[in-house]
Structures are given as structure tokens and as C-alpha cells.
Amino acid sequence: MNPDCRDMPPACFPTVQSKSDMNRKEIFSVISNRRLTARTMLLKVAGATGAITAPGQFVNIAVEGKYLRRPISLFDYDDDSITLLYDIVGDGTEWLATRRPGDPLDILTGLGNGFQPAPESRRPLLLGGGVGIAPMFALARRLRAEGKDITVVMGYNTAADVAAEKLFADEGFSTYVATVDGSRGTKGFVTDAIDANGLDGDYFYACGPLPMMRALCSALDLPGQLSLDQRMACGFGACMCCSLQTRSGDKRICKDGPIFFKEDLIWK
Ligand code: FES
Fold first, then answer.
1. N or C: which end of the chain has fewer CB within 10 A?
2. What is the CATH classification number for the domain harbouring 200?
3. What is the pTM of this model?
4. Ligand 1 centre distance from Cα of residue 38 (Å)
């Protein structure tokens, strides 16, 4: 076992910097909105993507009848489209799941800092819990283009929740699954799948529920970057509702994150 992040010596760690503070509101058009499991959907929309600078950023979608937009991680993007993997977790995402091809969506893009590829890493592990696997797709494509040897590990509660395995496997990524009940892949958590399959990366990128992020920081003797899942309101740094204490001072997860270096995090 490794030292928990709390036990690391205090220092002034760098934060993962955004290459751009630009965000942009655009009207996108739904290309497809496909159900993958009972509660997970894959949405592809067409529109301008020039404000997006890195995998790991997120968008904020206006939903009918709601004051607050819904933040959703980028799954993939190119010059004129965005793909989003999202769970139906309330009224807003239920409405989103009813959008059909051709429907307009008001989307704020270019939000958050995004992952920063670690040049020293040759064999990164890309780890996701549930829909937290989403930002790993565009990241995996970028890292593979840089010649990295990528391994993807995703964790779910049960086989019926496994939404993204085929999406990654179809792209040719080496993909492993863990389920808490053992109904698919390794029984247990992402860390159990790493151990059971003898996976030994030299760096990790992770996204998922906070308990999982904490467990990974404690269990993995590797440097890494983590995308923190947090309820947001404005989504662009104005309301301070997503503040986080780090070793380099107070941060806003939406604006200064959502990606943070492992060494910068304080687990209370
Ligand atoms: Fe408003 Fe982060 S959600 S500052």
C-alpha cells in the first residue's frame, strides 16, 4: 500500500492548467441519442467545437424548465461534433434522453481545464467508475496518437450497468471491467481488476465517485491526475459552490479543475 495523499509532505504543487479560459455558448443539433443501458445514454451533437482544448473538459447543457444547466464530461469530440456519455439521474437528464435527431441543444463548451498528458509516462492506466469512464475515451485517443501504450479499466456495480466496454473495445483499446457483484469481469473494484490482471502502468488518469478517487490515491503507487465529480451551479467559476481545499490553496472544481494532480489533493 502507498501513503494516502494526506500523508504526503505539503508543497506547492502545480495545478493542471487550462490552455484556454475561453468558453462559448452555441446551439448544437442532435445527431443521435442512443440508450446503452437502462440509465446510460450516448449523445452526439453537431456544432462548433473551437472552444474545446483538451479531453477532460466538460460542457454545460441548458435543459427545458430548469434554471441550472447540466454539466456533462466530454466523451469525444472532433472539429464539428461532440459526443457525451451521461446517466439519467433526474428531471434534467430525463428530458435530455428524450431529445431526437435534429433537436436543438443550447450548450456551453470549453469548460474546465482538461487532462494534461504526462510526457514521462509510456504506459498509462485510464480508470473510470460508472459514467466516470466518459472523459477517458477522448484522452485514450489522444494518448494513443502520442504513441502511449494504454490500458483502460472501468468499474461498475453490476453487469447490467456496463455501458462503455464495447465503445472502448471497438476502438481497439485494451479494456478491463470490474463489477462489485462479480457479474462481469473481476469481482470488486477497479483496483481489484488491476491486481487480478497484473496491470502495471507508470501513470494513471482517473474519473469517478469521490470514494473511488480517494481509494485510488491510497492504493496506487503512481503519479496521476484525477477528475473530481462535484455538484455544480454556474459551471464557470462565478458562484464558488464547488470550492475545494488543495495543497496549493482553495480551488473551484469547475474553473480550476475538474482535473487535479494526485499530489495536490487533500483527503479529509
Ligand atoms: Fe459555480 Fe464552480 S459551479 S464556481
1. C
2. 3.40.50.80
3. 0.90
4. 30
